[in-house]
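Q:
Got a chain?
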Amino acid sequence: MFNQFTPARLRDLVEGAAAVAGQTDLQAILATTVEIARDLTGAPHGALGVVGAHGGLIDFVHAGLDPDEAETIGAPPHGRGLLGLISKEGRTIRTDRISDHPDSSGMPPNHPHMESFLGVPVRAGPTLFGNLYLTDKEGGFTEEDEALVEALAMIAGTAIRTVRLQQRLQSLAVAEDRERIARDLHDAIIQDLFAVGLSLQGQALKVADPDVRRALEQDVESLDRTITSLRGFIFNLGAPPDEHRTLRSELRELVTRLAGPHDAEVNVAYTGSLDSLPQKVVDDATQLVRESLSNSLRHSNADRITIEIHAGDDRLALLISDNGIGFDPSAVAWGLGLTNLRERATRAGGQISIDSTTGSGTVVRATLPL
């Protein structure tokens, strides 16, 4: 593959590959891959969409659009049309005019006009992870551009697979270490305390002095409380450590797990700065999306669900919509998780509204203070 490049472009590819492979965070790999692809080809616009279990996009990283312009466009693509064809056929697509391609589904309102297009699948091992998109290069993309981006996609896929493997190994190592500590605590300390407690109970029965007997019984009760506390601590050791988690990583895992058993296509879109959200906001937002998504998947009969996350200056906005059967909020009891949604948003100091009409789907809007 590499012998077809000029020395200058090969050098650029090697430098770009080093930048991608040097990242230790998945989100950084995605963003760096998009930027390097733009640099290698001269394309003004680039994006990388992460494909979920049912072909929809569960994450979308883009570069080249002004933030205000991106917000005006609204939700990113759902992974259908020309973009979905890359996932469906697992091959590169290059065209000088997007509108001329038979699988093109057009641009959404407020989207800037784009002509040329280059889309390349990104695989993490044998599995399709996502698709790398580049658009609007003046004069169109060349065969060499295509080969360069395919090489970059291969390198990015390897980096993604490596980071995933490292995360699994770290989790496994931590879990094994925690399990070992828990076993040691249970087998050594708790058993010894339990034996001491039994011995004290036996001694108390033999003591005639009521004050001494009462003191021994109180010591036994204190040991029982200590054993109970230790057992709770041991149980908590089985849980993973409370590491800093990002909203993107939390929702990526959540959507993959919840949507997997269902046929609905779930798409997730992000706008604004999400890298430094307070952990409490990440937790509250994740739980609100969990409740809303679970309701849609289980009760709406929807085949498409969209999750939109926007971080503003002082608040985080969530929108979860589906094209399902809907319901009449005034006629339905506040079960099915709806009460949980309201209570959770209120406890977080936020606001929530649920709009639904029978036959027209449901829209959940929530805001959380930053």
In short: Residues 143-206 form the longest helix (64 residues). Residues 247-369 form a domain with the Heat Shock Protein 90 fold (CATH 3.30.565.10). The two ends are 48 Å apart (CA to CA).
